[in-house]
Amino acid sequence: MRRVHCDKCNKEFKIRIRTQKIKDDIERVYFICPKCKKEYTAYYTNDKIKDLQEQIRILRGEYNKLRGKDFKNGYKKLQEITKLQNKIEKEMDILKRLAFYI
Ligand SMILES: [Zn+2]
Asked: Is-contact 77 85, C-beta < 8 A?
C-alpha cells in the first residue's frame, strides 16, 4: 500500500482508494486524508480505460512468459503495452478536462 503526505495538514497516511460515479460510465478515483478530510483525485476512468487496462494485463502476462526466451516477440509485446498506456493517458486527460464541466 502506498503512503503519501497530505499537502494540507502534512499527515502521512496509507491511500485507501475510493470511486465515485460522475456521469454515465465515468468514475472518479480518489482518496481522502483521514485527518483533515481533504480529497485527492487520483484519476478519472471509464469503460474504455478499464477495457484498455484489461488488455494491458493480458499482454503483461504474455510478455512475462516470453521474457528472457524470445527477445523479438517480447519486444513487440512491450511496444503494444506502451501504445495502450499512451492511449489510456490521453483518454484520462480528456476525462479530466471533461469532468471539470460536469
Ligand atoms: Zn490532511
From this structure: no
40 C-alpha vs ligand 1 centroid, how far in Å?
10
pLDDT digits (tens, 9 = 90+) for 5-55: 999 999 999 999 999 999 999 999 999 999 999 999 999 999 999 999 999
- Taking the C-alpha atoms of residue 7 and residue 35, their distance in angstroms, rounded to an integer, is 12
Topology, domain 1-45:
N-terminal domain of TfIIb (2.20.25)
Distance 16 CA to ligand 1 centre (A): 14
Domain boundaries of the chain, sorted by first residue: 1-45, 46-102
98 CA → ligand 1 middle, Å: 27
Judging by beta carbons within 10 Å of its beta carbon (0-12, 13-18, 19+), is residue 86 exposed, middle or buried? exposed
- Compute φ and ψ for 39, nearest 5 degrees: -95, 135
